[in-house]
Design a protein that fits this description.
Order of helices and strands: HHEEHEEHEEEHEEHHE
Largest sheet: 7 strands, mixed
Number of helices: 7
Number of strands: 10
Shape: globular
Distance between the termini: 39 Å
Length: 208
């Protein structure tokens, strides 16, 4: 399965016929997987792989996957953090939707969705340390497999700590539904639904 196909698979499962969903397979061992299943990050390629329950359990320890695989956490937790307009501008992210990932070297990287896929910001995030120190909830971010997902299209802005598979789903929405120069009403509708569906599954809101 190619990388774009994996992205599409993350958002199309709910629309599949039951028999098609049952045909989806674990990308580690080939076993059938249900519509709701875990994901594993292939570290070298930065790609998300579908995992059956036994394979997910196999990698449910930090050292189990060595330097090749890491199980993506199921955590989807909305958090109340404070990134004011000045702090956001200092990050120089050109859009209002973004996610931040801690690398293996503890460096924070910023990404945002586009119709071309996931775009990494190449500008230095010099003020991230100040933002993190002001928001202790961000210290719990697991390297490589979790993200701080930011929705500044909402009023007030919304923030989540999520597995990166959630962020890849958002990227896939842009790839699938973007139309023309401005994106069109369909992509705006799908993005709004994506965030609306996050909150009920995420559990109680936690104040940092």
């Amino acid at each position: 399965m190619t990388a774009p196909s994996r992205l599409r698979a993350l958002i199309e499962g709910s629309a599949r016929r039951p028999e098609a969903a049952a045909a989806e397979r674990c990308e580690l061992c080939g076993a059938n997987v249900p519509e709701q299943h875990r994901h594993v990050l292939e570290l070298s390629a930065g790609e998300i792989l579908c995992a059956c329950r036994p394979c997910a359990l196999l990698f449910d320890h930090d050292a189990a996957g060595g330097d090749r695989y890491r199980l993506v956490p199921e955590r989807r937790r909305p958090v109340e953090i404070d990134i004011d307009e000045s702090a956001w501008r200092s990050l120089r992210i050109p859009v209002e939707l973004a996610f931040f990932v801690r690398g293996a070297d503890d460096t924070i990287r910023a990404y945002y969705p586009s119709p071309a896929g996931r775009i990494e910001s190449t500008l230095p995030l010099d003020t991230w340390t100040d933002i993190e120190n002001a928001n202790p909830a961000l210290h719990s971010l697991q390297p490589q497999v979790e993200a701080v997902l930011v929705d500044r299209l909402a009023e007030p802005p919304r923030y989540w700590l999520t597995g990166i598979d959630v962020c890849f789903r958002l990227v896939a929405l842009f790839r699938k539904h973007w139309h023309g120069i401005g994106g069109g009403d369909r992509v705006r509708h799908e993005v709004a639904r994506f965030f609306d569906e996050l909150s009920p599954r995420a559990g109680a809101r936690t104040r940092s």
